[in-house]
Amino acid sequence: MADISANFLGIKSPNPFWLASAPPTDKKINVLRAFEAGWGGVVWKTLGSQVKNVSSRYSAVNYNGSKVMGLNNIELISDRPLELNLREIKECIKLFPDRAMIVSLMADNTREKWHELIAQVEDTGAHGLELNFGCPHGMTERGMGAVVGQDPEIARLVVEWVMEKATIPVITKLTPNVHSVVPSGKASVEAGTNALSLINTIQSVTGIDLDTFVPNPYVAGKSVFGGYCGPAVKPIALKMLATISQDPVTSKVPVSGIGGVSTWKDAVEFMLLGATTVQVCTAVMKHGFRIVEDMCEGLNNWMDEKGFKTIDEFIGKSVPKLTQWEELDINYHIVANIDQNKCIHCGLCYIACEDGSHQSINLQYGKPYNTYTIKEDECVGCNLCKLICPVDDCITMVEQRKGPEYINWKEFQERGMPLNDH
Amino acid sequence: MPIKNNRLTAEEYEQNFSDLHPPFDSRESALVEANRCLFCYDAPCTKSCPTEINIPKFIKQISTDNVKGSAHTIFVSNIMGAGCSRVCPVEKLCEGSCVYNLMEETPISIARLQRYATEQALQKKWKLFERKPATGKKVAIVGAGPAGLSCAHVLSREGVDVTIYEKESKGGGLMTYGIAAYKVTPQFCEEEVKYITSVGGINIKYNQELGKHISLAELQQSYDAVFLGFGVGLARQLNIPGEELEGVVDAIRFIYDIRADAFHTVPVGDKVVVIGMGMTAIDAATQAKRLGAKEVTLVYRRTQSEMPCTEAELDIAKLDGCSIIWLAAPAMIKGAHGKATQLVCNTMQLGEPDASGRRSPVESGETFTLDVDMIIKAAGQIPFVELVNNNQLKHAHGKVVTQMNGSTNIPGVFAGGDCVNGGKEVVDAVQDGKLGARAILEYLNV
Prior knowledge:
The complex is a heterodimer.
Chain A (H helix, E strand, L loop, with lengths): L5 E3 L2 E3 L3 E3 L8 H10 L3 E8 L9 E6 L2 E8 L8 H14 L4 E7 L4 H12 L5 E5 L13 H5 L1 H14 L4 E4 L8 H9 L4 E4 L3 E3 L21 E4 L4 H13 L8 E4 L5 H9 L2 E6 L1 H6 L4 H15 L27 E5 L9 H9 L4 E4 L6 E4 L9 H5 L6 E5 L9 H6 L8
Parallel strand pairs in A: 3-4, 3-14, 4-7, 7-8, 8-9, 9-10, 10-13, 13-14
Antiparallel strand pairs in A: 1-2, 5-6, 6-12, 11-12, 15-18, 16-17
Helix pairs in contact in A: 3-5, 5-6, 8-10
Chain B lengths: L9 H7 L10 H10 L7 H4 L7 H9 L3 H11 L3 H7 L6 H4 L12 H14 L14 E5 L3 H12 L3 E5 L8 H4 L8 H12 L4 E4 L10 H7 L2 E4 L19 E3 H10 L10 E5 L3 H12 L4 E5 L11 H9 L3 E3 L2 E9 L2 E15 L5 E13 L2 E4 L7 H6 L4 E2 L2 E2 L12 E3 L2 H4 L4 H18 L3
Helix pairs in contact in B: 2-4, 4-5, 4-8, 5-8, 6-8, 9-18, 13-14, 14-15
Subunit structure (chain A): Heterotetramer of 2 PreA and 2 PreT subunits.
Organism (chain A): Niastella soli
Catalytic activity (chain A): 5,6-dihydrothymine + NAD(+) = thymine + NADH + H(+); 5,6-dihydrouracil + NAD(+) = uracil + NADH + H(+)
């Protein structure tokens, strides 16, 4: 049995699975249920100035009958009284002392307000603070949330205020609604933040009602941009996390990864790109706290299979596998192969290659089943047919190197070698 | 116990003849199935449909909530797409070749999805086709069955005025009169005919029989072209002693009565034997059982591997409690007081392959006897030999001989459906009608 516990700046949790700051972590009743289910920690829903929410608040993107591929929200920070939240946080810590309790904060933008809020929260015995510099709606109009995270200099200033006061670890949560998360991340680290977390939600319009012409979610005939999250944003989150892990400044602090984590596999991917813990929200909003059971078991089994004893042994392992395009080996070449015993003759590889790629698949007519074969000389090894094929391992990519040695684009140009003729 | 009607209560009849394959009960359930479809390219299902419906396209259209477009995609290839979704032996056509079969997974429920789209078109009376301006051409069609209606719809869309002569008082042909009631109801058939003719330019004259009320010569004179889709006649004679006894009935007539009258008026025996193992035999056997017969036995002279009906059809019969005797050929019907009481059968064994490639049954020399009070003959149907002969149509054993495009030996006279193929599926007749219409349009230079 592997040890899946996490130690994040001294904040210990029995597993690296935390719940992100969101509705599932906004009150004692939820958080206790989460801890009972096995979650390693929570980031309590953002505390700050008093707000009023609207109805409705969520909308979703479905894909081919699969519900909530992405979730969009226009909910604000906690709308419960601060005192009540603080009292409940304290009670939860007492009942589950082995779990991580991080509190998300978004104070009005003055040094005094931040200091006041930090003092109140530290009184609860919380283990860490997370600065919400990312909420993309509602709070931005008041100079909070994403407007802080989108401007590195404002982020730097606020982090400096926070670090003057905070005595427990501070995690700065970054917004993805920027060209690159690195400048704000860098400014925050330089200003002293102990850790980073990312990503917050991505501004979005999930869809429009084709009868009323009002985008979702609907609020009395109008809508606003919301924050998008869930499985759909995972690839974007992973890329942004990777840039934080690659940068010499930001890579110095631990990271809590967020963005579409639904399974232990997603979590491992975030960890391989440098996250020490991951935070989950949408998957729990869809399925409940119970999903953590498989997350723990899956991670454990995978670590056993790979021979990892602790999570530190694999965190960041994939970061060096990312390189620059011009460093890629041009002599590496693969071609598709269709296993005729597995082929179900759906023709999806053929039409994808024919209309969308390099016309490298033969169609031999048959009634009712056509036979499809690869034109190896034409195949550029793009993977499209393999990705499209509905049968596992029917299409495989077979290595057929163009030359034995590694040669990259720069070298290729220097030697004046021939370009593609496709 | 004699043959009698009124064996069941109204509720029992209703239950026994309710929809065999109920439709999707919600948009959501249809979408779940539609989304399973892989959207194959040059799809095997389409290639296995005699009318070549673009199945992946119509299923995709259901999944995008374009049900109107979906219905149009179906009807443009098969105007009886609604009826076919209920009566087609899909397990040997589209669904039988669905690529999911090759993955050992349940094929897409193409028929149910087709029903989902087409039923809405019929119920909501969607006008999916516009007639082109009138060409001034007139075509007569004999028979308002699947072939005739399909031909009429294509012609009408192209601006040709069509008159259909139908010997029955309702349209739909065997769809209305020759198929088990739990597959399609008479009401549905009527609605479908109404929907098809709602395109305009199609006038059906009922109770007009070729050779009786009208002649081919008259039609040739009054119209620019004629399409014959008069189907096939009654069941083949057994040619065995005792066939004339009371209680020996024709499957086509038996099913016709079920379809034309209320269920409780149709008499059925206690011990029924059905001879044959085609779709009609199954429809007759299952419906005899559902009308209240105590024992129904299907007797077939070959084995299961040679049977013309599909496995799915055989399963219906078995689930209805019908027994099956393979390798048994009727030899003699014994009777008392003019009524059939016993069927003597020869036990058969399989010999050399015959013209159809199936091993032909030969007598083993042994016989057995079944106690019966009703025998339903369903061993194939006989073409209208006399009608065809009288009109100088070239034929093969009564089946009208046509070119690939449906033209007969008489210029301007085309034919298709059961009267040409001797009795195939509804969907085959629809395709014949479509091809016939195309040939007529070419002949008329439309």
